[in-house]
Specification:
- With 229 residues, the protein is of the alpha+beta class.
- The protein folds into two domains: 6-113, Roll (Ubiquitin Conjugating Enzyme), CATH 3.10.110; 124-223.
- The protein has helices spanning 94-105, 124-150, 157-179, 196-215; strands at 6-11, 14-23, 34-40, 51-54, 182-187, 190-193.
- The chain starts with 5 loop residues before the first strand and ends in a 14-residue tail after the last helix.
- Residues 1-146 form the UBC core domain.
- It comes from Triticum aestivum (Wheat).
- GO terms for molecular function: transferase activity.
């Protein structure tokens, strides 16, 4: 466990395998979500990085996370990089991998993770695209929650339900706040209006999410209701 946001499961019969569950950080479109990764250490590890598979469930919610499970990251040698950005035998570690995924991939402005988009940071063109991308990433995070509650990864049934029992109300309150018209686009205190399409899609997802949370007895969700906007 790392700061209550990264959980790791080992397997007695497969010492080369780890399953990692990450909690989306506050202030990101992945907030309160759960994201699962399988790490497999090849025979030549630690001379080479682990192979990492992301449980995408068909959702492309980040430029670095593909629907086929590929994780695109310099540290995994699946993306270009230099120096300490890539895997360095004797220096790089599994902890570095999982913390990098949480901090560098599941961040507050994932739009700029797309290759070649770094130059758009703090430019008008970048600002025009980052909010729509965050809106879509948030919606896909909600759909991932619903999928996890219906079909949690093997061995994590209780973990998934416990997580959303504790955080379900927070998720729905965040949704309701977004439906009121504002979403933090990663600009500190500056807020931008949500798009009409986002509010419509969010209003369509919320009943399913509310039902899923109610079915597991999420704390305080009896006080949360969906609102038409």
């Amino acid at each position: 466990m790392y700061a209550d946001t990264i959980y790791v499961q080992a397997f007695e019969d497969r010492m080369d395998l780890l399953r990692v569950a990450m909690v989306g950080a506050s202030g990101t479109p992945y907030q309160d979500g759960l994201f699962f990764f399988d790490l497999q250490m090849p025979p030549s590890y630690p001379d080479v990085p682990p192979q990492v598979y992301y449980h995408a469930f068909g959702f492309r919610l980040n430029p670095n996370l593909y629907t086929d499970g590929t994780v695109c990251l310099s540290l995994l040698n699946t993306f270009s990089g230099e120096g300490t950005e890539v895997w360095v035998p004797g220096t790089s570690s599994l902890l570095q991998v999982v913390v990098s995924i949480q901090a560098l991939v599941l961040n507050s402005q994932p739009f700029y993770n797309e290759a070649g988009y770094e130059h758009l940071i703090d430019r008008p063109e970048g600002h025009r695209h980052e909010l729509p991308y965050n809106e879509n990433a948030f919606l896909l995070t909600l759909r991932t929650m619903i999928h996890l509650l219906r079909r949690p990864p093997q061995g994590f049934d209780g973990f998934v339900m416990d997580h959303f029992r504790r955080r379900g109300r927070s998720v729905l309150e965040t949704c309701e706040a977004y439906l009121q018209g504002c979403v933090d686009a990663g600009h500190g205190s500056m807020e931008l209006p949500c798009s009409t399409g986002f509010r419509t899609a969010l209003a369509n997802v919320m009943p399913k999410l509310t039902t899923a949370f109610a079915q597991i007895g999420a704390l305080g969700c009896d006080h949360c209701t969906t609102t038409k906007h």
